[in-house]
## 1
Amino acid sequence: MSLTKTLKLNDRSVNYVDQGNGPPLLLVHGFPLDHSMWKNQINFFQTSHRVISPALPGFGASEPMTASDADPATRSLTMERLADWLVEFLDAIDCKQPVHYCGLSMGGYIGWQFWRRHASRLKSIIAANTRAAKDDELIRRGRHMAAAQVRVSGARLIADAMIKKLFYLANDQNPLDIDYIAQVHQTILATDPNTISAGQIGMSQRIDATAWLSEINVPILFIGGEFDTITPPEEMQSNAIAANNAEFKNIPSASHLTPLEQPAAFNSAVEQFLDNIA
Ligand code: MLT
């Protein structure tokens, strides 16, 4: 079971998990979720690792980084800022040792910036269902439209649309009958529309990290989901080939949220990877 804690960082409250002993394993959630998406990994790895997982600012029960009077239409949560915020957070919980950084999707986008800006804090990278490439023009435009729409109409449209893409089983008749899908749907519904908008704008502004892959000198494990259309496994496999020291694992019968859809396969891939580093 994971117990959440809270602390104040720059006067803003952060909700997080910090459990277990051993080498630090930092779990960084995707968009627009929170650390509850890692519940199976928190339970599994806390017996061998110090498992740390914050809800990023504005997501879950963490307060946004900026005061709410900023203009919601231009507010952007950039991957650079989030990477710097993670280091401030690690300092605040006195985690100075380099971390195994495990990020899913947006968490992975932030991971490339974490390497570029704070390489000395990294021991390895687990890049789950994520991309190194930046958005093309079509995706970028789609994000800006989605950002404007959520500010006007709230989170329901995005919650309903996203679960179909996040989960292999969500195209069943009643996806919300499946507990973990209903929980993720609820998490998205509860997210402040201004944070969803700022996240979309931030992701649309991210820079291409593909050329960095051959320079990253810590081991990388790429994990894809067989049916993932947001971050296609074929692209992740090419990233693994382009990287200096990487491997790729494709998880069958999964879409985008592999840690929740196929926890045993996900945990076993990560465990093997971490055992080989230790
Ligand atoms: C995520 O899971 O973090 C998002 O789907 C990423 C994205 O929209 O590119």
## 2
Amino acid sequence: MKITTSVFKQKKLSGEKITMLTAYDYSTAKLEDEAGVDSILVGDSLGMVMLGYENTLSVTMEDMLHHARAVSRGAENAMIVVDMPFMSYQTSVYDAVVNAGRLVKEGNADAVKLEGGVKFTEHIRAIVDASIPVMGHIGMTPQSVNAFGGFKVQGKSIEDAKCVIADAKAVEKAGAFALVMECVPAELADYITDILDIPVIGIGAGNGCDGQVLVYQDMLGVYSDFTPKFVKRFGDIGGEMKNCFAKYCKEVRSGAFPAKEHTFKIDSETMKAVTEEY
Ligand code: KIV
């Protein structure tokens, strides 16, 4: 069954947790979809985990479209949410609508996600008015890494906590169907989850949220440059990949691979006729 914004709403009402993971390519999207993940996020985190940038600021619309198209070919049921990259919506409400439209028309996004609260309500409202579902993203918003002075937990002081609450309410009022809340103390996240009607998807926001999202390379141990405190490793696929790569090198060097069963045959008469000509 295709997961839609109505399914998100139902899950909030019934208390069934929403599952979301990032994916950036066809094969991973297919695996996640088959595993029953509710929503796949084509996150601008691809700048770090796929392209090797230090942060998400260099990611372009073309990067997002390229990866979104690949993911959409792999996912049948999961809702595909695509991130609006840095400077694709901050520049104007007009740019926000045009670029959200491109992610839907050219990237096959079911919904778009953008970072920011109170300051971006006009942008969110205009995209929603264009019939494109919007997922908000508040708390630690990676596109503001330079303004924050690093990837830091948000909402720890009275003033900051009030700002996070104001952002959450503003995003809901602007018409977003859900909200990602990143790196916020668990008690504050619980409070916001309770007062909002839209689902809150947490990442580093405790387990009281309506759902959870993780970057898949983090939870599989594939990306090792930086592991945030909130990440749980569900497996060591990175270690397993490295072992397999090393085994492959060893077998190629020793001549053990390819073996007979990986090799194509030619009829000996045909081969004789071919070589006799030379
Ligand atoms: O880009 C991303 O992967 C995200 C998640 C961290 C929520 O925005």
## 3
Amino acid sequence: MTTALITGANKGIGFEIARLLGERGVTAVVGARDEERGRAAAERIGQPYVRLDVTDPASAQAAAKWLEEEYGTLDILVNNAGIAGAQEDPSPSATQAAAIRQVYETNVFGVVTVTNAMLPLLRRAPSARIVNVSSELGSLARASDPDDPLYPHNYLAYNSSKAALNMVTLAYAKELAGTPIKVNAANPGYCATDLNGHTGLRTAEQGAAIALRLATLPGDGPSGGHFEDAGPVPW
Ligand code: NAP
């Protein structure tokens, strides 16, 4: 049996990742902080649910304990949970440190908390995969290119959180290089979800595809990269 944990899987791209992994025969555990919505989502796709608030280390430890008791091991971890931040004006001069901290709690520190809690289980799997759902908005190369369509989208908290997540991804990949575990970041592209008031141009299912690919990489696949459907995303 192949087991996966997807954080923030009660809706949006995370839900689609869980649904699509399930279709491929994976036991795709729906991680969600709200029990009612999490259970409802899991039921819709016939998968298990575990309560998981990524900003709460006790919640991550409890989820890891439950997974260990249920399955003994974990093959795939998708760190998908993310927030955009609730600022009206996301430009740097209008951003308070507290607002940045709040976004980082989920998008950066949450990933570290959950990954560290799950690593003992991932190490027990024959060839575990970790996928961090990042964003093209975290690309320094794209953000600094005046000809890039993303150039004007100068959202301090969110963009820097995803840039930090990219470095987090690389750091884990380097530490785990001597193991079968592969760690990559996935850029779903601009998808219509609650995160952006459904203004995105792609579907959540389309956004889930790259995470799915990275979650099921063969042994000779890459580690320590950031990828989208078309290939690598420049750092
Ligand atoms: P979404 O529909 O708003 O879903 C976000 C998910 O994260 C929800 O399930 C939410 O749970 C969960 N979440 C937030 N904080 C959490 C916490 N502390 N603990 C556990 N779960 C938490 O947004 P989405 O677009 O699918 O976003 C999924 C990922 O894709 C994010 O990392 C986002 O940054 C990334 N992304 C999205 C786009 C896009 O265009 N949509 C583009 C690039 C990257 P609740 O329902 O409880 O809030």
## 4
Amino acid sequence: MYENSKLILESENAPDPGGFTWRSPSNIALVKYWGKYGDQLPQNPSLSFTLAASFTDTRLEFEFKEDTSTEIDLTFLFHQEPNEAFENKIKKYLERLLPVFPFLSQLSLTVQSGNSFPHSAGIASSASSMSALALCLCSLEDHLFGTLSDPAEFDKKASFLARLGSGSACRSIFPYASVWGTTGNVPGSSNEFGVGAEDYLHETFKDFHDDILIVSKSEKSVSSRAGHALMEGNPYASARYEQARKHLSHLIEALRSGDLPAFGKIVEDEALVLHALMMSSNPSYLLMLPDSLEIIQKVREYRAETGHQVYFTLDAGPNVHLLYPGAIVQEVRAFIESDLKEHCEDQYYIQDWVGEGPEEL
Ligand code: PMV
């Protein structure tokens, strides 16, 4: 999409060294993206809440490189320590961006990154980390070429670049909520980048919590990348993509009107369908654990007994997200403490909420 911009620095105008820092949050999908094609394009549109407490801080520093090699020159530090695996991943990502950003091979780059949540918490950090890096790259482009002074253009390009790193990361750029994937329900939506969905939210959803119950801190046994790929042979794939479109349309209605039971029904169906797709892949696999199921049962019982509007969703892993309005935070926290915490590894859970999106630090 941006391949023709060909941003190249003239060596007589070598820029002074500098840097940019962005804080970018994770997001939780309500309608899930599961299945892709081409260059990280989604098989169905998805919608997420942008989180607040789970974020990545990333600083990108640059210096003009004297040599004319076309290689990416990168030093990467994670929580101040060298991390070869992450460095290689980011190097590959930056190499992939060269058609869009040829100037990256003219610079020496240092990237320093750190998460607000413990590294081994079983929380995928790709959405927050890739979006933070994409935002830094857009700040760099704007600094060097003055091409992204329009905030809407800036966000669009950041979302596009984040998507190439990790699909779901493209939704972390926007405050409160985002839609990624072309759909007639959202004007301006695209498979190439996410768009903000704040305007579709009733006030109830702007004061909304997502407490993340960490059932297991271990890395998952099947990566999202492998999971997406297995959708290609899944016998239910086309019915699933159709269902996601319907869910998205109905969810937008529920978000607009503030209809919590309608919201909760779709969100819980989406979570269970995601895992049903894993169970019906070939080979099949399970990422939920017995404690995930215990939590789900207890949440449904609690809702039936108390009438409190608390719903669950799941990512591609065993951890359970509890979604509920700010008005019942005391009650739900008491319920977590008395009934749910015991199902978490080391009784650990993260208190998160729907937030205002990334900020430049
Ligand atoms: O962005 P990826 O490739 O890690 O895939 C994310 C998939 C889910 O988290 C399960 C759903 C989603 O839409 O975020």
